[in-house]
# Entry
Amino acid sequence: MRKKTNRLGAFLKIAVILIFLLGLFVFWRDHQNRQQVETGETTQTQTETSSKQTSSAKKTASSTLPEVSPNDWELVLVNRDHITAEMNPQLTEVGGIQVDSRIAQNVQDFLAAAQAIDAQEHLISGYRSVAYQEELYRSYVEQEKSADPNLSQEEAEKKVQTYSQPAGASEHQTGLAIDMSTVDSLNESDPDVVAKIRALAPKYGFVLRFPEGKTDSTGVGYEDWHFRYVGKASAKYMTKHNLTLEEYLTKLKEAG
Ligand SMILES: [Zn+2]
# Structure
């Protein structure tokens, strides 16, 4: 009887140990599974986040460049490398000058906004025909030559080209460019006023076309009064990224 009890006791002890070990195993297995699930979820979340970041980065990079074509009428490029024949735009008079009829309202609104900053703001020049530009350019060359008789024709023209363009190379012939200032002389307006006007220009679709430090790109010296209509989306992008029309068009063409 005693032996039997002993055997029963030993059996129970083994059973308890086995149950304990089984419990331990079950606990360990559950724990492992939970860890795997957690790790898996984390990995998945990380993947989702990083793929979201990648797609948003792609989206930011592409969508900030406005969906416009370099061939759009607002983005026509006229400069000494892009000599253009008379374009005969349809014209509308605004504030004593003529502009392409499609931008007449923008010019009107931009002028009103500029006058709210400084009442002296006024329009000086808008559309100029290729024929008139030729006349103007010749007269400037003659002025330079009479001011300095030692200048050759070439030297005089080079000097003039820092502030006026030969026939076919001035964007005033597009009807999309305006000269607007508080005074009738180039680069003599209060720089603080110019900075304010420049900042609000994109709201009306304009950019300061010949900014400081961009002569290498535009081929023209700084002009505090020459604004060019390029459309609101392009104007905002160009201003934000400090791009000239030449640089912006290159970027648009690269983006395809
Ligand atoms: Zn101008």
Q: What stands out?
A: The beta strands are 91-94, 97-100, 122-125, 177-181, 206-208, 226-229. The chain has two domains: 1-63, 73-128+170-255. The pocket of zinc ion is lined by residues 125, 172, 177, 179, 226 (CB under 6 Å).
